[in-house]
Write a structure and sequence with these properties.
With 356 residues, the protein is of the alpha+beta class. It is built from 8 helices and 17 strands. Helix 3 (229-254) runs antiparallel to helix 6 and helix 4 (258-277) packs antiparallel against helix 5.
């Protein structure tokens, strides 16, 4: 999985009331009220103190995952201390009782990952991080050690609105203002084009996982992360080539045929409902077979010829990319734990391909 650093604030360069971002995106941070600037950190002294990053372009949008690293030295106060928050999107903070907390807004609820009480020390520097993979895993660390984990995070997140604030709640309500010093802040996002998040996210369909499934999902993500560049590129090329073949097939099939376009859209809706809302794989099979029967017509139809070309192209692609043996077998094993329906679906797809 690939990440892009979209904001890096070392608090070493200041200009015209801004703390300068060193990334290519130049997401400079506005220093407001009486925040004191130093070489390598800023100090929050009053309830209205805050910094904010205006959302100027897509560099601070199109998040499919999030990672925040921050260097902090909080003063001992008995209230919530905001570290970084994206308005109506995410929050990273210290809750009362010295608990480190990361939170993602899914459009209805804030889903949190939290540490035990007493984890965050006062009056000393700590390096803290919050990572959300965009699928189901949220992790908190302090000085390189994991202090919190939630394997039931939401699939997908809302995008931050208007601004991202540092040391303050976006509405500038003083009860959440940070107290103490904040050093380097780094914000990374999962690349929007990341095929792994899209593939696994679609597979999970917003479903809650059992502890065993969540553990397998975590291992699956870690194994994908650990793939060497050559292997990952091989899988990526295979997935992209397969997608291009499918796109070409759909383009040829749908071109100039309003009836088929409507049928295709209806099929997509029915298949999504069958996949997400029932464990009965036979319903998926029925929807798929009915669609293919309508599509193929008799043995001499143009649609039948296009299906034959599609089947041949997929077979050629599978011969070109041999995805067997380690690490692929283990990845398939983990996938079947996360989504056991895939075992049935794989057999059904093979049968369907034989029927075409």
């Amino acid at each position: 999985m690939s990440w892009t650093t979209v904001c890096n604030l070392p608090f070493t360069d200041y200009k015209a009331g801004n703390a300068l971002d060193t990334t290519q995106f130049h997401n400079d941070t506005v220093i407001a009220d009486s925040v004191a600037t130093h070489d390598g950190y800023v100090t929050f002294q009053n309830p209205n103190d805050h910094l904010f990053i205006p959302i100027r372009d897509n560099s601070l949008q199109r998040f499919t995952g999030l990672r925040i690293n921050a260097r902090i030295n909080p003063r001992p106060v008995s209230r919530r201390l905001n570290i970084v928050e994206g308005w109506m999107s995410f929050a990273f903070l210290i809750e009362t009782g010295q608990r480190l907390v990361g939170s993602i807004y899914d459009g209805q609820n804030w889903i949190v990952v939290t540490s035990n009480p007493g984890v965050v020390p006062f009056n000393e520097w700590s390096q803290v991080s919050f990572e959300y993979d965009g699928i189901c895993v949220g992790i908190l660390t302090l000085n390189g050690k994991k202090v919190g984990e939630n394997l039931q995070m939401p699939v997908g997140m809302r995008q931050p609105q208007q601004k991202i604030t540092i040391g303050q709640w976006p509405d500038r309500v003083g009860q959440y203002t940070f107290a103490g010093h904040i050093g380097r802040i780094m914000i990374d996002k999962r690349d929007y084009e990341d095929i792994w998040r899209e593939a696994v996210g679609a597979m999970l369909c917003d479903r809650r996982l059992s502890p065993k499934q969540a553990s397998a999902a975590r291992e699956l993500i870690e194994r994908v992360n650990s793939l060497d560049t050559k292997t990952l590129q091989k899988v990526r090329q295979y997935a992209q080539a397969q997608w291009q073949i499918l796109r070409k097939f759909l383009h040829n099939f749908r071109a100039g045929n309003k009836r088929n376009i409507v049928a295709h859209q209806k099929f997509g809706d029915e298949l999504l409902a069958a996949w997400c809302c029932t464990a009965d794989i036979t319903l998926v099979k029925q929807v798929t077979l009915k669609y293919l029967e309508d599509l193929a017509g008799d043995g001499k139809s143009p649609e039948r010829e296009q299906l034959e070309e599609f089947k041949s192209a997929i077979s050629d692609l599978e011969r070109e990319f041999d995805l067997s043996g380690e690490p692929f077998d283990k990845l398939r094993e983990l996938l079947l734990i996360v989504a056991p329906e895939l075992a049935f679906l794989e057999n059904e797809i093979k049968q369907v391909m034989q029927m075409i």
